[in-house]
Amino acid sequence: MAKEPQHKTLTSSQLSIWTGQQMHPKSPMYNMAHTFTLPISINVKVFTAAFNAVLNNADVLRTVFLEKNHIPYQITTQNWNYPIAVVDVSDKNTAEIEAWISNRTQRIFNLKECLFDTVLLKYNPTNYSWFLNIHHLITDASSSPILYKNTLSHYFNLLKKPAAEVKSLPLYEDYIAFESNFKTLDEAQPAIAFWKNKAIELQGIPKLYGATNISQKTASKRVKIKLNATKYEQLKAIAQNPLIRSFSPNLTMFTIFATLLHTFIYRVSGQKKIALGAPTANRLTPTFKNTPGLFIELFPVAVLLTDDDTFLSVLNRVKTESINYLRNGLPGLSNAKLGNSYNVILNYITANFEPLNNFTTNAQWIHSGHCDPNHHIRCHIYDFNASGKLELYFDINTHVFTAEQVANIPNHFLKLFNAFINDVNTPIAKPSILSPTEINALTINPIKVDTAISVIEQFHTQVNNNPTTIALRYKHETYTYAQVNEKAANYAVVLNEKGLDFNAVIGVHLIRSPEYIFSVLAILKLGATFIPLASDQPKDRIAHIVKNANCMAVISSEALAKDKIEVSKTILVETLNLADKATSFSTPATFNNTQAYIMYTSGSTGKPKGVSISNTALSNYINWAKKAYKHQEKYIFPLVTSISFDLTITATFLPLITGGEIVIYPEDTSGPDISIVQVIEDNLVNSIKLTPSHLALLTNNTVNQSNLKLMIVGGENFKTSLANTAQKTFGNHVKIINEYGPTEATVGCIVSTFNADLHKLNAIPIGKPIANMQAYVLDSYLNLVPKGVIGELYLSGKSLASEYISQPALTATYFVKNPFKQGDKMYKTGDLARWNTTGELEYLGRTDEQIKLNGFRIELAEIENNISSYPKIKKAAVVVNSKEPIKNIVNCAECGLPSSYPNVDFNEYNVCHLCTSFKGYKEKTAKYFKTETQLQELLTSHKKRDLKYDCLALLSGGKDSTYVLARLVNMGLKVLAFTLDNGYISNQAKENITKITQKLNVDHIYGQTPHMNKIFVDSLHRHKNVCNGCFKTIYTLSTQVALAHGIPFIVTGLSRGQFFETRLTEELFWDETADTTSIDATILEARKLYHQEEDAVKKHLDTSMFNDPNTFNKVQYVDFYRYSDVSLHEILNYLKQNVNWVRPTDTGRSTNCLINQAGIHVHKQERGYSNYSFPYSWDVRLGHKNRDEALEEINEHIDIEEVGKILNEIGYTKIDTKQQQLVGYFTATDIISSADLRRYLQKKLPEYMIPAGFKQLPQLPLTPNGKTDKNALLSNSINFDVATAFVPPSNEIEELVANIWKEVLQLNIIGIHDNFTALGGHSLAAIRVTARINDELQTSFTLGKVFELPTVYKYALYLEQQLTNMLGE
Amino acid sequence: MEAVLLNYITQLTHEQLDTPLTVDDDLLGSGILDSIGMMKLVSFIETELSMVIPPEDILIENFMTVKHIITYLKTT
């Protein structure tokens, strides 16, 4: 009987291929097929015999793959007899034969059966071709020559001598054994260490042309890259260059192509750290060199590239890295982590099919039409036939890349190849890689619009055509077109009398009002230039603008101008409003290219810069907008945004040139401008121009029957989620436009119409250029980058500003020669962008530190320079503190705690630091927990007093508290059950409570308070959840009840996880000799502090009893689950059998409280994780839940609509609507008062540029390059008490206390005057801080001291006194 | 060292050389050593001489012949 074949494990490469095939069982991606030409007549019978002899000699060919419990293994079976068929193709043409071969190559192998397929193709009696297709699991490129040579030489031997013995082949199973043992060898250790380090420095896979393989499909197209003969000779010559060559010719070619591929990836992805995957041979011994089978293994070859690199500098790095790869790419050492660093493969094959019997076969490798989906491009370079000429192929995944990209990729590569051949010292970023067709497509915009008619002329046309139509509406006033024109003409006449004409530059410093419109129109009638200066512009800034723009006059009002503007230049608007002046003014004829307005924007030097906009540029935008945004009705816009902001130009002019209407909303100069909310309430407009921040304010409320038809959103990045909400809020008939455009290109020059079906990414694309405008995405050499690749956005065309006023150097830097259109300029935006596959541009951030905050464009350097100009300040840095939700959350592999939990650390196995450290003290916590018997003893210790109730049990109606109640009753105790009716207990939960208390026959009362909603709101603001407020209310009310009835114990149903959330910390268990009495004492102390916090509960409920220390003797708090280690499963079983408890279904969730999900929602929004994540992670750590149960409950669905209703009902509105705020850091030679600094800046900067907080630091953190490390500042800024000046610790005790605070509060810097509570300290943190200090100094200070002496300075002083006293004693 | 190297390289080639190896034989261009052989040789020298050869030094100029290797080892 045949022996049961041995089960062999898979090698590392086999396992990766086997897994890949399991994921794509229908893909022939691992089929390696060859055809070998045989220009001889073939004796098929002998050939079959020769092949079968080899087959029965090569164990790997007879190997099949099976699995047991989803784990694969391989076995080799014996005595195969494989008949080789002959396919006669003599009547077929070449194309038909190729189609046949291609089709046959795509046969799917069953891994459990035969893993190869072979036939002979007969072209004519003396011309054959041998087709051999083998699954990659049992072969590689080096196997083919071995199998070919052995089969053919045995065939010729058999022809000569029919009984010839086949040459024996070494066995693949020896390699399997070798590989599995290799890792344990000494010689493998340096390589193992090398890859471990490498894995850390590798980056994720680059996005080539911005593409990813989401579909994970495998189809790929093989494209031959043609290298012409001359280039090829040049390549060979370069390979001889001592600067280029490696130690062997093959390695030289490998490094050259690796350099070119690295450069190619760099150019089409923008990624800097780039890895290629390349196979190492792994045939380490001469025997293995003759063994057929899968030996090769992929390893990364990774280098860092920059724009400063030349081909040669990259090549030198690749050379070194290739040696590292060769030395360390050893059997079985690759892993998935390394594999996740590349998506381009470089496969350099040197298979050699030697001549046999006077002919050399022509070997062809047939592409199966599919590749591993993680390999977006596979580049093969090979010379099978010793022709000395390399062949170059790209297999390109056709799901990752569009047909256009597939066609362009080889050309882009070739452009780099040619540049390399021409001069190896060429900078890698320099050569253009696009074809003329691609360049044309990216530079020509066919859309045109007429710019000949100016804005003021079009206004005049409307005055003539519609004199009685209403043009302006302001509070209760209205003005017709004729009236507006009269006023404007009137103003113009007066201005003209003051000597102002078409040469004049005139500031307008007014609140939004009809007078502002009259002034602007008057200035345009003069043919002069206006500068809008919003009411919040500070004195110094206006002074700078007036001087910089050579402003001849500023129109202002008495109220605004006072003490702000030079009197000689001020023209009070009141003096313009003179009825007896002429009511018409004739505008000079042609002034199209003259300056219409100057708009000042933030400048990095510390002063704003003036952008000069011509009448042509203004017309180009407005005339385009008139056509593009047209809707059924005439435009009615509100004038509601700051006039100093160029997006306001749309609402200022678009209605007036089309016969529409402006509804003016003045700003409230004394507080934040929230007129925008009024606009929606009034519902007078059908069109609106606003920023995303404004829009976010509007979508908080429900909107009924809005008249809005058009919403133009601009000024900052527009998130898709906001657009979707807006569309829902205002209805599908509203057209939502995303308008992009820096002030330098007039209001808006790239525009996208929101389409929910098309726009699925995080932000809406900015769109396509408007008429007469071109948008170029360029690299640092001003090359156009291919579609999909990120570059800097440049703008050109008629909307472009002409200059920055009086700043020729700055103008020359930003307005540069347009290389695509002679004579034109283009503006360097500093914005990063790319073209997406639907032909729209996407905005992807900034190249510098310009930011957009609530729509305002701010150069952080402008603020920094102004802070630095304050006396004694040395250096300043300003950061934007954002609350962006954390992406790519992972959960701890053991407890499920999410990575978004603050300061959580994961080790290499994805286990959180809490789990790791708990393992160190878990045993010590055991003493805290007790038994049910001990509980019974405790609760009956008062029995002799013959009380009505032994204890009060807190009953929420949920499973945990119901179980507690049932068990207490079961112990024979007299129990009063207490439930807080917070107004949101579900009906079924209440039914449960009634049912349970009846069945258990216990008295039950509901606690209530009319202030519950206020407590919820306070809790939401304070803790970002509702539970904290609820818990405290329960403790307060139940304590009152217990005191009233003389009940000595309150029994809670808190879970063990909740103990660790709220009261147990590692420090409590440090002192191994301490018994639970001392732990209990500490916890009780913390409880007393807890009830002293000034929150809504203390404000609205009677908490006076907590001031009496005796209260805590009269009533003790007992946690049931401290005494019971029952599992969730046991609880549910017990409840089912004994109390008929049913899970409420009317909350839609696993809770019995309807408001619970509102709390979770707010917590998730504000903190980025569920408030249950932490206690549940403890439940898991303690074994009361498993990880899946915890995650399931944490990730329960939240009904956002329902949450919105509840939050509305309790009166919760987010106080902080600002998602982002500015924080200023500085160093100084003296202590600086934040208030003084703020007052100073208020004179220099508009309010929106003044940081929300300041912090003085001993020094600013630096990056390794010596620049200010803003990321370090960001991570530190959240909990800063920014009003307190930083003073570092000055002695050892302060140092000690500060260090302990830093550790516990997880902060990097703490000043000695920072307040403990303001830094985020609470009672749990107080426990930890106190325990650590006591441990360090061997003292026994009480918890309350931290709150009594809440700064490092005060606490340290106290400590010092105490220590001195102790020493004195 | 010379003899040690000649001996080790001869071993690596598994006696497939037609004539005995000399210090002037081109190890790389002639195919006496492939890249795996070269890496083995580098490891061998490192172990023999308790030294580390940085990847930047693994060049044709330093490893073309046994003579080159000896010169290289003398300069480091």
Write a structural description.
The complex is a heterodimer of chains A (1369) and B (76). Chain A is α/β, with parallel strands linked by helices and 1369 residues long. In chain A, strands 4-5-6-1-11 form a five-stranded mixed beta sheet. With 76 residues, chain B is an all-alpha fold. Chain B contains four helices and no strands. Chain B starts with a helix and ends with a helix. The chains are: A alpha/beta (1369), B mainly alpha (76). Chain A binds chain B through residues 187, 242, 245-251, 281, 283-284, 286, 319-321, 323-324, 326-327, and chain B through 14, 28-29, 33-36, 38-40, 42-43, 55-56, 58-61, 63.
List keywords for this structure.
heterodimer; A: alpha/beta; Chloramphenicol Acetyltransferase; Rossmann fold; 6 domains; five-stranded mixed sheet; 18% strand; globular; B: mainly alpha; Non-ribosomal Peptide Synthetase Peptidyl Carrier Protein, Chain A; 0% strand
Compact description:
The complex is a heterodimer of chains A (1369) and B (76). Chain A has 1369 residues and is of the alpha/beta class.
Question: How many domains, in number, for the residues of chain A?
Answer: 6
Strand content of chain B: under 5%
Bin the strand percentage of chain A: 15-25%
Tell me, briefly, the overall form of chain B.
globular
Mean pLDDT across residues of chain A: 88
Distance between the termini of chain A: 93 Å
What's the structural domain tally of chain B? Answer: 1
Tally of DSSP β-strands of chain B:
0
Number of strands of chain A: 44
Q: What is the helical fraction of chain B, as a range of percent?
A: 40-55%
**CATH superfamily annotation of the largest domain in chain A:** HUPs
By CATH's scheme, which homologous superfamily of chain B applies?
Answer: ACP-like
Amino-to-carboxy terminus distance of chain B: 15 Å
Gyration radius over CA of chain A: 39 Å
Q: From the coordinates shown, what is the CATH architecture of the largest domain in chain A? A: 3-Layer(aba) Sandwich
Seen as an oligomer or otherwise, the chain set is: heterodimer
Instruction: Briefly note the structural class of the backbone of chain B.
Output: mainly alpha
Across the major sheet of chain A, the strand order is 4-5-6-1-11
Order of helices and strands of chain B: HHHH
CATH architecture of chain B: Orthogonal Bundle
